[in-house]
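Input/output pair, single chain:
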Amino acid sequence: LTANLTETDSGSPVLFQQGMQLKDIEKFVILETLRHQRNNRTRAARVLGIGIRTLQRKLKQYKELDLPVNA
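Output:
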């Protein structure tokens, strides 16, 4: 089971596969939104429908877990 939810800037589909953990999908969506908003956290939070503090907390969690964050 795969779901083509969106396309990247390069036009290739983003596929989420059965068995992927929700936290991994959430991280991908947050980081892609941040990238699309040119690392503007306020705009990214607005697009995601979450508060800026929630976004900051999630980015801090990714950093603490040594997960690659390009923001």
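The CA atoms of residues 8 and 14 lie 7 Å apart. The longest helix spans residues 22-36.
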